Amino acid sequence: MLHFSCDMCGRPLGKERYVARIEVYPAHDPDEIEESDLDADHLEELAELLDHGADLEIDDAEPKQFRFDLCPECHARYVADPLARERLQRMKYSDN
User: Fold this and answer.
1) Per-residue pLDDT at 53
2) Strands of 1-96, DSSP E
3) Closest Cα to residue 20, out of 70, 71, 73?
4) Strand, helix or coil for residue 49
5) Would you state the pLDDT for residue 31?
């Protein structure tokens, strides 16, 4: 039998639990086509990529996915401030 606990406060979860899923990936804005793009030899560029494809490093831009189980109280706090901005503004640092 599976047992769940809240990923924020650590309390054991009963039947009422919430799941927060977050996916982070780089935004891609469509590029504008310029005259130089139309003049480029894309078949040659593709052939070079295929020839040297083994040398390419894996890009760190792959989507990252996170999943959190939350109790009802932590769910309410998370929904009210998902980026924890309010909590970060309340932090006080000394003037040393």
Assistant:
1) 64
2) 4-5, 12-13, 18-24, 64-70
3) 70
4) helix
5) 72
- Say what the alpha-carbon torsion angle 22, 87, 74, 69 is, to the nearest 10 degrees: 30
Check pLDDT > 90 for residue 79: yes
The DSSP secondary-structure symbol of 83 reads T
Count CB-CB contacts under 10 A for residue 75: 19
Distance between CA 44 and CA 71 in Å, rounded?
Answer: 56
Q: Which of 21, 25, 29 is nearest to 62 (CA)?
A: 25
**What is the widest separation between alpha-carbon atoms in the chain?**
63
pLDDT of res. 81:
93
Beta-bridge partner residues of 86? none
- Give the pLDDT mean for 17-27: 93
Report yes or no on whether pTM surpasses 0.90. Answer: no
Tokens 């390419």 belong to 56
Domain boundaries, the chain: 1-25+64-88
Residue entry with tokens 């924890």: 84
